[in-house]
Amino acid sequence: VQLQASGGGLVQAGGSLRLSCASSGHTSGRSFSSYTMGWFRQAPGKEREFVAAIRYNRHTVYTDSVKGRFTISRDNALNTGYLEMNTLKADDTAVYYCAAGDGIILSSIRRAGAYTYWGQGTQVTVSS
Description:
Elements: E1 2-6, E2 9-12, E3 17-24, E4 35-42, E5 49-54, E6 60-62, E7 70-75, E8 80-85, E9 94-102, E10 117-118, E11 122-127
Parallel strand pairs: 2-11
Antiparallel strand pairs: 1-3, 3-8, 4-5, 4-9, 5-6, 7-8, 9-10, 9-11
């Protein structure tokens, strides 16, 4: 499975961006729809942190700092996940990574180690 993240860029505080994560290489036995997809981010000098995730049943989980501003979604027909980011703040500046994994239990969904596949990252810069 390969993940390709895109959609990052430079935006002013208060603006919006939509990140995409295109997935490929799924076998017939394990389709994209069965995977949990997550978004993580890493700011300079900081550890990678969980942002949001969406399970196979479309149940979503968010870190507190993005609740009400970010929306995670997926289009299983296109094998693509999305992260809609609104009301962006300078603190949202980071490299954003998409990740996917099969069989991730809800209690582990915020852990990077629970995900098997990772995209290359896309830079999001929010100017204040």
